[in-house]
Amino acid sequence: MKPDLVHVLIYSAGWILFVAAQAYNSVRSSANGLNGRDGYLRWLKLQAVNLATRVFFCAILFGWVMQLVTSKIRTAGLGLESNAIAGIAGYAANALLYQAFGLLPFLRVEVQDLAPPANAQVVPVPPTLPTPPTPPPPSETRS
């Protein structure tokens, strides 16, 4: 299957839509300290390696993903245009790799740990000092 420029653009739009939804949900979450435009930029920086890996694999698997999604949609009896299939394929490819890469610890990004919420309270725990031994009770002396 030779990729058509329109299909590549729509596939890319589906891919970007998934990333935009992820960023939106992360910035709106109260579990981290990301807010506003700066929050989006920080999220993109935190996710840079993960996103670059996903875009690489989604690009090299473009033809296979397009054929797979097309066959699944036709098997379900739906008659969609190839442009719609390209958008669904881009979204689905990104979602699939997001889930798969979440299982790899070196690609997992815990935003709440890297950008904790402003109201997060860290309570310092003082180091415990060894308690001095208690002296034995005085023995009764008989005079």
Identify the notable features of this structure and list them briefly:
143 residues, mainly alpha, elongated
Structural account:
This protein has helices at 5-28, 36-46, 48-60, 62-75, 82-101, 111-114. It has 143 residues and is an all-alpha fold. The protein has one domain (5-109). Helix 4 crosses helix 5. The longest helix is centred in the first third of the chain and has 24 residues, at 5-28. The N and C termini lie far apart (109 Å).
In short:
By secondary structure, the chain is mainly alpha-helical. Helix content is 60%, strand content 0%.
Order of helices and strands: HHHHHH
Count of structural domains: 1
Count every helix, treating DSSP H or I runs of 4 or more residues as helices: 6
Secondary-structure content class: mainly alpha
Q: Indicate the multimeric state.
A: single chain
Q: Which stretches are low in confidence, meaning pLDDT under 50 for 5 or more residues running?
A: none
Which whole number gives the mean pLDDT? 81
| SS elements, strand count | 0
The amount of helix comes to 55-70%
Strand % is under 5%
What is the molecular shape? Answer: elongated
Report the end-to-end length measured between terminal Cα atoms. Answer: 109 Å
